[in-house]
Specification:
heterodimer; A: 288 residues; alpha/beta; six-stranded mixed sheet; four-stranded antiparallel sheet; 14 strands; B: 224 residues; mainly alpha; 10 helices; 0% strand
């Protein structure tokens, strides 16, 4: 089966920033987290997929088709939530949804109303009176109301308080149960992803570090903790990033077996959280 | 799909359309009573009618271009829809202007002096020209596009005056206000009615079409 989204060698240059040679693929029915620090290039990737910005080189295939061919019909099958959803906020939520819904042949007004009820969205109120969280919920309800097969969510939880974030993620997880929808979920709040993602693509300063399943990541990477006396040059070479504290070191490695062989029981190995990966790899110097 | 775009633009902008429509009618009525020259009324209407294009500034005001461009519609269709909306509202305003000139009779000259076929043909060409310049600028710069046009026309005028004063080119004012009307009048008398008026309509359509193509090209390359 063809991947629902395939990005190959995607490159975009801006003055002072370059997204270079990014490749990954998202299979049907899975959730992929697109993670990285602020300014890593996550939003640029999503905008390039949607052709909101023009790529310099590379290829994007959605549902097996080039994203520039049959652009309009491909978008019928894509739901988008922008980082800061731009609305005509002088309209009521209901009027805006009706306006947007007309463009989708598979728009389901019942689904939209059901989701709006679940999200407790006052459809008769003007959007300008909505909080950021409500705007995000509205954007999500709209993205899910036209039977989209691919959801592109750009920092949907950014700027939301933890309670609201959790609620939104729970709703999203419930909605994704049927596995008909694939999701590319960009965020710098990696804790949000731990609970829902199947694959993770990590970008740092415009470069792809890896794009793997969560299981592979957990098997590949480890956090090592031990005494500073163990940090001889040969051991340091096994670590991608290392933090030294007066009471010992904590390091990230993608060679857990070699670390275990070299240090044996003197080191404690654990699985890194996604936030650890991002934090340590941001600190990493040298090539990847 | 085009009809959906037009409908959306009207839903989004009906208050703006009404406001500018009312403003246009009020100003035209005022001009109709104050101005001594029927040609000046036509010129005023030619400037007022393209202001309907201001409705296109709403997307940039709400930063909603990215939302529009993520809809299942191509950018070319989006721009075509916006052009058709502007043309439709200009036609509506045009009808209102005609009605105003008829309803508010001028104390010094007859309505037929204002609404004769030659003046209306001139109006159509002028509206076509101004809106063809204005719409691409609004689509590119939002509301600032109007300022860019005014500023650009002023800069060009100053340059032309300087070049004329320096005798690099001939008398530009004489060319615009004497040579061009003379050439048009000669053309009008040689081809006669109705070809001259159809020609004026064709010129306006041609300008609008060229403007549409330029806008589509600009918008296709625009990064959001």
């Amino acid at each position: 089966m063809e991947p629902i989204l395939e990005v190959c060698g995607l490159t975009k240059r801006y003055p002072g920033f370059e997204l270079k040679d990014v490749s990954f693929r998202l299979e049907h029915g899975y959730v992929m987290g697109l993670i990285g620090a602020n300014g890593a290039g996550k939003t640029t990737i999503i905008k390039l997929i949607l052709n909101l910005v023009r790529k310099d080189s590379g290829e994007v295939r959605i549902f097996g088709q080039d994203h520039l061919q049959n652009e309009a019909s491909l978008r019928e099958r894509i739901g988008v939530v922008h980082e800061a959803p731009p609305f005509y906020d002088h309209l009521s939520a209901g009027a805006f949804a009706r306006l947007v819904g007309r463009f989708y042949t598979r728009w389901n007004d019942q689904t939209f109303r059901r989701l709006s009820d679940e999200f407790e969205l006052p459809l008769s109120k003007r959007i300008r009176t909505f909080s950021r969280g409500m705007k995000m919920k509205l954007a999500l309800a709209m993205a899910l109301s036209h039977e989209a097969e691919l959801l592109l969510l750009d920092e949907p939880t950014g700027g939301l308080d933890p309670v609201f974030r959790r609620e939104l993620l729970d709703r999203l997880r419930d909605l994704l149960q049927d596995e008909r929808v694939s999701v590319l979920f960009s965020t710098h709040l990696t804790s949000d992803l731990e609970r829902i993602t199947d694959y993770v693509t990590l970008v740092r300063r415009g470069r792809l570090l890896f794009s793997e399943s969560v299981d592979v990541i957990r098997d590949t990477w480890c956090i090592a903790k031990g005494g500073n006396d163990l940090l001889v040059p040969d051991v340091r070479r096994l670590f991608r990033a290392c933090r030294e504290e007066p009471f010992g070191f904590t390091a990230l490695s993608d060679r857990p077996q070699e670390v275990r062989r070299a240090l044996g029981p003197k080191v404690v190995l654990g699985k890194p959280a996604l936030s650890d990966l991002v934090r340590y790899l941001e600190e990493e110097n040298g090539h990847v | 799909m085009i009809s959906r775009i037009i409908r959306s633009e009207i839903i989004l902008n009906w208050k703006v359309v009404l406001f500018y429509g009312a403003l246009g009618v009020a100003m035209t009525a005022t001009y109709a009573l104050m101005l001594k020259n029927p040609g000046a009324i036509i010129a005023a209407a030619a400037i007022l009618l393209p202001t309907q294009a201001v409705l296109l500034t709403r997307s940039s005001r709400y930063h909603a271009d990215a939302t529009e461009c993520a809809l299942p519609v191509s950018r070319d269709e989006l721009i075509l829809g916006k052009y058709l909306t502007v043309i439709a509202t200009m036609l509506l305003a045009f009808v209102l202007v005609l009605a105003t000139v008829i309803v508010v009779p001028h104390p010094e000259f007859a309505t037929s002096d204002v609404l004769n076929p030659d003046r209306l043909a001139t109006l159509v060409v002028l509206v076509g020209l101004i809106s063809s310049l204005l719409v691409p600028l609004i689509l590119r710069f939002g509301f600032m596009g109007i300022m860019v046009l005014i500023l650009g026309l002023n800069v060009i005028t100053v340059i032309v005056f300087v070049l004329t004063a320096a005798r690099v080119i001939g008398n530009a004012l004489h060319f615009v206000f004497h040579d061009v009307p003379a050439a048009v009048a000669a053309f009008r008398s040689s081809v006669g009615f109705p070809w001259f008026h159809l020609g004026a309509l064709a010129v306006a359509c041609g300008l609008s079409y060229a403007s549409l193509k330029v806008s589509q090209l600009i918008y296709r390359r625009r990064e959001l």
